[in-house]
Design brief:
By secondary structure, the chain is mainly alpha-helical. Helix content is 66%, strand content 7%. Helix 2 runs antiparallel to helix 3. The relative contact order is 0.15.
């Protein structure tokens, strides 16, 4: 992948993340007045609510998502601070730093979209538009993170083979 392709990909992922963050705040702001004073804040393995809180807790998810997104974007600018599973040398430094940068931006974007989904699911449940939060979405999220990490490790440890 050329430098321009890496940069374009990273920029596209960041834009998707920013759109997800903005959408999270917009949706929450739009539906907030319609929410009852008490809303579910936790769901059991069956997707049924088993914890409740003030409707103000609906704002926790957007701010957690924003904080994590900004922190990871900040850390992404200093890849040498990250724990990379291969020894960094002058020969592999550029490739490894680009790879970890790309990977954490993708994970960040996936997590932001998942947090958006959780907040939207809570809102839809409270408004009677859904019966709860399904476990399938959590499984999809976990599988995507695990497969993404496996792919990152594969690329990271097989750099020389992939360059041939």
């Amino acid at each position: 992948m050329t430098k321009n392709n890496w940069a374009s990909f990273n920029k596209a992922i960041k834009i998707i993340g920013y759109i997800a963050i903005a959408s999270l705040f917009i949706i929450t702001t739009f539906y907030y007045p319609q929410l009852p004073d008490t809303i579910p804040i936790h769901f059991n393995i069956k997707g049924e609510p088993d914890g409740f809180g003030s409707k103000n807790t609906i704002w926790v998810m957007p701010f957690i998502a924003l904080g994590c997104f900004l922190l990871i974007n900040f850390l992404n600018k200093s890849p040498h601070l990250l724990n990379i599973p291969v020894k960094i040398t002058e020969e592999n430094k550029e490739y490894q730093y680009r790879l970890i940068s790309k990977s954490i931006l993708v994970f960040n974007c996936i997590t932001t979209i998942f947090l958006f989904y959780i907040n939207l699911s809570i809102i839809k449940f409270v408004l009677g538009e859904s019966v709860g939060m399904g476990t399938f979405s959590v499984i999809i999220y976990l599988v995507s993170i695990i497969l993404g990490m496996a792919y990152y490790f594969y690329l990271s440890f097989n750099e020389k083979k992939l360059k041939k």
